[in-house]
Design goal:
With 339 residues, this protein is α+β, with helices and mostly antiparallel strands. It contains eight helices and 13 strands. The longest helix has 21 residues, at 255-275. The structure holds zinc ion (2 copies).
């Protein structure tokens, strides 16, 4: 049967200088030696795939996706810690401990893995109904986790390839539900809020309308979704897929919208894969937090980040990304990739 979450140590530490949280997750029990630079390529791991095992040893072989707790979670469910049932309203203060400079918080939350049932079937091989099934799996788990009292934000993401952080070849997405949200997301939420209150319009809807006028950064669109290389892309060939209609909450996506999103996602990912020779990539969802506050001014979207450039000293030191391909040229190129 399914293996249990390993006994792991994980905590949140506050970066007082940058006003940001980091997670220390020692679950995988790495020793300092494991981080030594390996000069020679390691031989491929020939041990049986743990994710294939989930399907082999369960009665879920007919399912396309299986969602299970991560064996080495970065965030531990409340029943693994003493803060079970903490309400959203007071958790911010009651969970924190330590002094002003070394503040910590238990890394309570949920870390789930969405395992695809076919080891060799990548997202680029997905049919429209596979994509719809994947979005339904995301939505279903989102709705379930958002009911948990400690959860304020749910992050859904997919890593493809080693450079993108995928530790196993077997295709899988991840869902992490946490008691707070990060400063980067907070910036994006605050920008949307400010824009909405100043102009009585959604920032993302306005951006989409402006992209429709400019045309040069659009890769493709259908009735409900638009795929663009953003004006200020952070990596070469970055793509944002967003609904044309103002939709703040991903979890409310309808059957029709899932189908339309599937059509756009399928084509965009194939274009990236065929056009850039199957690069490693990450994609992630940004949607409204689920902390009982009102986020009607926000607008959910997916961002796809191909790993085709490396953030170097300036990006890390000054926090300013350098891209070498004009987003307009990237969009033009992807638009013309035949799939
Ligand atoms: Zn496998
Ligand atoms: Zn909007």
């Amino acid at each position: 049967m399914f293996s249990r979450i390993k006994k792991s140590k994980s905590e949140l530490r506050y970066d007082t200088i940058n006003k940001d949280w980091i997670v220390v997750a020692e679950g995988r029990g790495k020793r300092p030696e494991d981080f030594k630079n390996k000069k020679e390529e390691q031989a491929e791991d020939s041990s049986p795939c743990v994710f294939c095992n989930y399907f082999t040893h369960s009665n879920t072989a007919d399912k396309n996706f299986l969602i299970v707790p991560n064996k080495f979670p970065a965030f531990l469910p409340p029943h693994h810690s003493k803060i079970r049932g903490e309400s959203r309203a007071n958790k911010d203060n009651s969970l924190k401990s330590g002094n002003a400079l070394f503040k910590t918080m238990p890394s309570v939350g949920f870390h789930e893995v969405v395992i695809f049932n076919d080891h060799s079937k990548q997202l680029t091989d997905f049919s429209i109904s596979d994509w719809e099934g994947l979005f339904s799996a995301y939505q279903q788990k989102y709705l379930e986790l958002s009911k948990e009292r400690v959860v304020s934000y749910i992050s859904i993401f997919h890593n493809h390839g080693k450079m993108a952080g995928a530790s196993l070849n077997h295709p899988h997405s991840q869902i992490i539900a946490i008691p707070f949200f990060d400063i980067t997301l907070e910036h994006s939420i605050n920008s949307a809020k400010e824009f909405f209150f100043n102009k009585s319009q959604c920032l993302f809807c306005s951006m989409n309308r402006a992209e429709k006028v400019a045309k040069s950064r659009i890769i493709l669109e259908n009735n409900s979704f638009l795929a663009v290389c953003p004006f200020a892309s952070k990596v070469n060939f970055e793509v944002v897929i967003s609904p044309k209609k103002h939709l703040p909450y991903f979890e409310k996506i309808t059957k029709e919208e899932k189908s339309e999103l599937a059509q756009v996602f399928q084509v965009v990912l194939k274009k990236i894969s065929y056009g850039l020779n199957n690069p490693d990539y990450n994609f992630y969802l940004h949607t409204s937090p689920c902390d009982d506050k009102d986020y009607l001014f926000y607008h959910w979207h997916f961002t796809i980040m191909p790993r085709v450039n490396v953030w170097a000293g300036f990006e890390l030191g000054a926090g300013i990304e350098i891209i070498t391909m004009l987003p307009e040229k990237a969009a033009e190129y992807l638009k013309n990739v035949k799939i």
